[in-house]
Amino acid sequence: MITIKEVAHHAGVSMSTVSYVLSGKRSISEETKRRVEQSIVALGYHPNAGARALASNRSRVVGLVVPLHSDQNLPIIMRFVSSIVARARDHDYDVLLLTKEAGPGEAHRVIARSMADAIVVMDVESADPRVPELRAVDAPVVLLGVPDDHEGLSCLDLDFTAAGRQLAGHLADRGHRSIALIGSPPPVYERGTSFAARLLAGFQGETAKRGVLTSVHSCAAGYDAVSGCLDDVLHPDRGTTGLVVHNEAVLGPLLLELRRRSLDVPGDLSVITLCPDDVAATLPVPLTSIAVPAEELGAIAVEMVMARLGRELAPEVRLLQPLLTDRGSTAVR
Amino acid sequence: MITIKEVAHHAGVSMSTVSYVLSGKRSISEETKRRVEQSIVALGYHPNAGARALASNRSRVVGLVVPLHSDQNLPIIMRFVSSIVARARDHDYDVLLLTKEAGPGEAHRVIARSMADAIVVMDVESADPRVPELRAVDAPVVLLGVPDDHEGLSCLDLDFTAAGRQLAGHLADRGHRSIALIGSPPPVYERGTSFAARLLAGFQGETAKRGVLTSVHSCAAGYDAVSGCLDDVLHPDRGTTGLVVHNEAVLGPLLLELRRRSLDVPGDLSVITLCPDDVAATLPVPLTSIAVPAEELGAIAVEMVMARLGRELAPEVRLLQPLLTDRGSTAVR
DNA sequence: AACCACGTTCGAAGCGCTTCGATTCAATTC
DNA sequence: GAATTGAATCGAAGCGCTTCGAACGTGGTT
């Protein structure tokens, strides 16, 4: 193993000089810097992370708590993870993988052992049992998702309430007087997944304000569940003309089933959804949708963490405003 | 921060004694052990990972290279990751997340910096460009997937050749004389994903031996692609009576489309596949299938890594034998 | 009684790095 | 020309842990 000592010797300088070349924390002459950098390359030097962490009290690692067992929206989770890893690497940070299933003690463990400098927690729920323990973690913590009791914690999410309003408003603007919301399966609501409840609240607030009739349907994945749900949604008594879908897994089957029933989108039924842009765009019928900006959320999460690594910073809740893309799947009544 | 020194003082012993209590590398009297353990709990001591790594030259971390951008079989990838993290934690190891996309240099970097003691690489392809660099990594490396040139590397995978044989054989045994294989989309083959090619080889070997007619179809995801593919598969000239599907993403649409065409499984068409057991079991029609034993593969990968951490061990290629579960989706002709 | 062996424990030397004065030397200032 | 500054560099003290050799009883051998 090549150590900083050998680099120093090779370059004819002291260890501290090499260290300062590497960190840039003190000014070093161009000439010396060049020589040191050459030696580093020549010897193939890589600083030892443990020694560095020990001496500097910084691990340059963030712990990421991921819900690996979640079967729901895996693609979105992956996008988050991917974006967080990439942005962390931009800051020369690595990512330690912690699983939600392994329990909240994991976050505390890696911080207490100085394995990580900060924690990012994905998939935070309304009444998330991990919240108290996370609050006690002695390091910056950023939650993706906003728990009910988020005092003292930094959270980040899409503004689902605004999204619910916007989806409802978009249809109401186009003259729809009876709109159905197809949401996640019952377990998601029971689990208190905050985003589902918040979107619903926004949706109902807006429709109430506009005097639009609504029906709300919790729909499981699977073709039969979707078909059954559609029977309910399209019951003639309702007069449903617009559909808000907040459940990525049913989009494909839903559109298929509509086609099977010879219902045209948007001719017979307007459909609007919330899902990643590329999903919305590659469905059998491209759907007007609000994007889930996973990459952006991941990037902001990392920014929030990095900002809190240096100085003490007040906790904040950041809600990204939803962005709706019109793909022509809604018609004017 | 509580250090080992404070624990030692609190327990009235030396630092080294505390260390030996923790590591168990020397015998310690029950009495002392008890006192030390009490002090550890009382003070809330957590060993500093950096110091530990520096002194012991062991990080207790494995680097895991994950294809985060892969859109194919995300659920399987997650299962692997999940199982690897869990099994690594069983050994008191943590997992550092490296992305395939960030390039092969990442594995070398984390090893050279002593951030990890070993590397596990997922989603290895036939002519994987990362292989040469992985071979040069100065630490145990285990590949999930078998590249063509795997000399000197330890690899682990399902025996896809045997799986192909077994799937074909299962249908041939039941009297099918014309079998179609629906595989992954063309890009997967072009990329040289070894498992696709190996399954195909096994399939063709077996069918040739049995004198069974075959047709091979590369099918993209999406309902229209599936429908088009079925038109081809079911062309009357072929007389296809059995279907081997090696493409998890098309299973749902395929079964739907068969239903739409009023074709009964297995009455009109026998279908058999290779996918995770729970996927096969929860489809509209449960399918006889060979399981992708993700949990088991992950566990074995971790075992292989751990075995190689202590002593020098020869590289080996381990191929798990496929296990077929009959769910009644194939009929006798 | 001197010896050895063994189980337990201690002390101290690092592991490779960062960082804080201290030092040197040349350029500026009065 | 002495004093002051500031840039560039060095030396050494840790960071918190593991681990090796030594030391210390205690009990059994000879």
Automatic annotation (TrEMBL), chains A, B:
Q: Name one GO molecular function term.
A: DNA-binding transcription factor activity
Keywords from UniProt, A to Z, are: DNA-binding, Transcription, Transcription regulation
Q: Which domain of life is it from?
A: Bacteria
Q: Supply the Gene3D superfamilies for this chain.
A: 3.40.50.2300, lambda repressor-like DNA-binding domains
Q: Which InterPro entries match?
A: Cro/C1-type_HTH (IPR001387), HTH_LacI (IPR000843), LacI/GalR-like_sensor (IPR046335), Lambda_DNA-bd_dom_sf (IPR010982), Peripla_BP_I (IPR028082)
The record places domain HTH cro/C1-type at 2-46
- Domain named HTH lacI-type is located at 2-56
Name under which the protein is recorded: Transcriptional regulator, LacI family
